[in-house]
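The freezer alarm interrupted the setup, so I double-checked each line after restarting. Inputs confirmed:
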Amino acid sequence: MQYFPPALERLTEQFARLPGIGHKSAQRLAFFILSQPSEAVDAFASALTDAKRLISLCPVCQNLTEGEGPCAICSSPKRDKSTICVVASPKDVVAIERAREYEGLYHVLHGVISPMNHVGPDDLRIKELLARVSEGGVEEVIMATNPDTEGEATAMYLSRLLKPFQVKVTRLAYGIPVGSNLEYTDDATLMRALEGRREM
Amino acid sequence: MQYFPPALERLTEQFARLPGIGHKSAQRLAFFILSQPSEAVDAFASALTDAKRLISLCPVCQNLTEGEGPCAICSSPKRDKSTICVVASPKDVVAIERAREYEGLYHVLHGVISPMNHVGPDDLRIKELLARVSEGGVEEVIMATNPDTEGEATAMYLSRLLKPFQVKVTRLAYGIPVGSNLEYTDDATLMRALEGRREM
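Predicted 3D structure, all chains:
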């Protein structure tokens, strides 16, 4: 009985290890790789090893960074070092930076507390956050975890841990998203938007 | 404005070049790679370059093979060299081998004639098939392209090309699939099953 060449099977297995890619898709991707010129395949292979080799976590904010020492945001003299915005993932840093509004620093937890997925406080970069706050100079910590159950729970947990340090702990505002439609806004969001109403 | 580290952006771009993977999925895969141990990432990278470096086409049947010379099927003394089964892709060889019924050789076209996708006869391994048949010793060529419009057209086209060589050209039987249900069988298949009925 003849199967595919072993090198093709190995490549298929590697693709199938990626999340959300089943065996059939993995096989399709492996065939696609064979159809590509050698240079393109080499570029893919070096992008893989480079990403792993070059990218590390910033020793201060735990965000992804290339090279030694603190990341570009932590080492920028323009950023306000008295404010730390706590997010779950590096993607959230990019999202907030895109808004061009925030001038402070970040702290990336790399996850949220989630008993269902066996993620406890010790699996997150919480120690590092407490160390930063205990060093002094921090006036406000903004909890910018997602507005879902796990994000809420993580924000609550952290705000309790931060209480002894006597810093202001805030949470992102809840409300109706800009450009959305009241008719289609869910009850919980409308309730929060009413609670948080402001004088015009 | 701070984006992801350049090495992460490059890896995301590489994933996004794969068929069926958009930018968001590519980013998710790139983050997954960062979360993996170095050895796993190195194994993925070498699977990519190995597949491209080690796999070539069998000079006889054009199927994928590793190493120099004819593939395992073409060089096996157990296979009947007077019969060639013509398929569109290496996946079809694996499917037919799985049935453990066929003892002859194969010829892989690497596609079917498809004017819609700009695939003409010159893009397929047809010259190589004609060369094999013209060398003599071939008694039967079985057309095992898919039973769809393009597969049919390709089989018809090849059978005309093979006419001058005076070999028997056959086509896989059409009929109701084993284990299926008459009630849900489409009209065209039922018609072909009636046409091809055999005495019990």
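Quick read of the result. The two ends of chain B are 77 Å apart (CA to CA).
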